[in-house]
Each structure stands twice: as structure tokens, then as C-alpha cells.
Amino acid sequence: MPGSLSKPLSFWVSAGVVAHTLWTSAAPAMVYPLYAQEWSLTPTVTTAIFAIYPIVVVAVLVLFGDVSDFIGRRTTMLLGLGSSIIGVFLFVIAPNVATLFVGRVFMGIGVGLSAGPSTAALQEFAGAGGVTRASSTTIIAQAVGFSCALLVGGFLVEYAPLPSRLTFVLLLVLLVALFAVSWFLPENKRDPDRHWRPRVPGVQREIRIFFIASSIAVMTAYAHGVIITSLGAQIAKELVRSSNVFVNGSVLALFAISLGIAGMFANRLEGSKAVMWGSVASIVGMFFLAAAVAQHSLLFFVPATAISGIGYALMVYGGLAIINPVTPENVRGGVMSALYLLAYLFTGLLAIALGKMATVIDIATATLLGAGIMVALCVMVILLVVRMNRVQSTHTEAFTSQGA
């Protein structure tokens, strides 16, 4: 019956829902070249298959971003998982590219409904040390989902039968199992006097400066996903000139593996410091990526993905560690959804732009442009965090003076 899971077990089931958001997002990454070959697709079309997903996520977050604050985390996560199951099933049976677009729409609905509630649920089920434990577990869960999508996907594409189908069959089975376990999650407390209506998730004035810094950090981190999941396999094949899909998937999975390792140790840093160090790591990763493209070298591509993963982990952890402690529980689902809304909106637009450039000019130019945009965003994040720290310090000094 609903609510029969213990709090510790509920925490890990919620982490599984977080993991599904990245696995579902990255699941087609290693299959894009197969689709391009089988149906003669251009980079514009393959990146559009990727981009329709974050665009739908954004639409769902705009309309339903705070719905879990009203109908409950469990109910919203179940609706999200159900939609993801439909989307993955469509990829299993897809006879044409149109079916892939419909499948990505359902995946986007699923992740849009479950991303915010699952992150909020981790915070609420975390117990002692909730903020740091929930933030680091979010990163590790994302890393597990991302790395499984790339490693398992790369292995099945290279060595298994039905290379464009089997990876989605496996994911479908896992999602059905996760849905079944999530059915027994307890429901969070809700205010019966509050009534839900579709609206853009709001952010209270008193936490707005923290939200801006954290959301831009998470948005920048998610921009890594455009390069890794929408273009990564084609970069490895066409620019780095590595023909083994499993090797390429393993190199791309270094992003997720280093992401997970960094996430395990990120809780030793304050949120603002984690964001700043993550920005520096991402800048270094982008320079290695530019070198890999220029030299057609796997030697540079390996550190590019690994160091970028560290940058992603520290920026997402730091962003969540900045916003979580200052967000009231009764609006946490909406605030988390607003944060993801900005991240997914930007990645969708960036994917479309880079895909168009890869088609009109070439993939090398698109990759270098993406790396340049990432560097600019990281510099912006560093400046924002410095500004946030100064404002916070000023408010603290003023409060201390009044108390004296």
C-alpha cells in the first residue's frame, strides 16, 4: 500500500527517480549515428530529436512545475515515470523518425514532472545532514543514470543484436520496476487550503539572489549535456575518428564517472566554492575539447570529458547547496522546478543552434562554438557567485550591527 516504505528506503527510491531523468535523457546518445545512417538524417535532425526533449521539459515545468506541492511528490513522480515508460516504449518499436520525436515528447513530460519532485523528496527523506546528503546524492544519482546510458548503450550498440532497440528494452524494464517500487512511497504533507492551478513556478523575493546564482550554475552545468549527449558520439566518430561505439561510449561515460566521483566529495565544499571550482574545471575541460577537435586526438578527448564531468558535478552540487537551505518546504517543489526550467530551456535552444550550425557549416565549428559558449557561461557564473557572496556579507554585517 502507498506509504509502506521506510524513510531510508524512500530516500533511495527517490534517488532512483533522479537517476532515471539523466538515463532517459541520454539513452539515445549512442544510437544517434545509427539513426543518421539508417534514415539519412542530418545533424540538424538528430540534435532536434535531442532538443525536443528539453523543450517539452520546459513546457511541463511552466505549466506543472509546482504541482507536487499540491498533489504530492509521490503522485507526481508516478505520473512522470508513467510518461517516461511510454516514451521509451516508442523508441523500442520506432519504425521512423516521427515516432522518435513523439517518444522524446513523452520522455520530456516524464522528466518535467519528476525532476523537481524527486530532488525535493531527497531533501525531505534525507534525515540528519539533509542538505549536503541530498545535494551530493542528487549528483551521484545523475552520474549513475548518465554513465549507464552511455556505457550500457555503447556496449549494446557495438556488440549486441538489435543495436538501435535493445538499450531501450533494458531501460523500459528498469523503469517499470522503478514505477512499481515508487508506488509504495509515502506522500509528503500538503496544505488542504491551497489549490493548484497551472502557472510558471515562482520564487520568493527573499531567496531570489540565491536562486539566480544557483539556477545559472545548474544551467551552465546542463549545457555540458548538449555537447556530450547530442553531439558527443558524432564528435568521437567524425572528429576524433574513433570507430568503436563501445570505446566512444566509454570515453563519453568518463564524464558521468568523474561526475559521480566528484559528487561523492563535493559535500566537503561550501556551495559557492563548489560552483566556482566547477566553473574553473569546466573551462579547462572545454580547452581540452577544442584541442581534441583541432588535433583529431582521443588523447585530448579523454580529459575533456573527464574534467567536464567534475565541473558539472561541482556546479550542480553547489547550485543545489546554495538554494536548498533557504527554500521553505511548502514551496520547494516549485522552486526546484523553476531551477530546472531555466536549465532545460537553455540546453534545448543551444542544441538546436549547434545542430543547425553542424549542418550548415560543419560539426567541428559547432563543437568549438559550444566550447566557447561554455567558457563564457562559466565566467558569468563566477562573477554571479562573487556578487552573491558580497550581497550576503553585506546583509550579515547589517544584521549584526542592528543586533549590537
From TrEMBL:
Main location, first listed in the record: membrane
GO cellular component, one term: plasma membrane
Topology in membrane: Multi-pass membrane protein
Name of one Pfam family that matches: MFS_1
Segments crossing the lipid bilayer: 12-35, 41-64, 76-95, 101-122, 134-156, 168-186, 207-233, 245-267, 274-294, 300-323, 335-354, 360-386
Subcellular location: Cell membrane
GO MF term set: transmembrane transporter activity
Positions of the Major facilitator superfamily (MFS) profile domain: 9-390
InterPro entries reported in the protein's UniProt record: MFS, MFS_dom, MFS_trans_sf, MFS_Transporters
PROSITE patterns: MFS
Record keywords, A-Z: Cell membrane, Membrane, Transmembrane, Transmembrane helix, Transport
Protein name (Swiss-Prot/TrEMBL): MFS transporter
Lineage: Bacteria, Pseudomonadati, Pseudomonadota, Alphaproteobacteria, Hyphomicrobiales
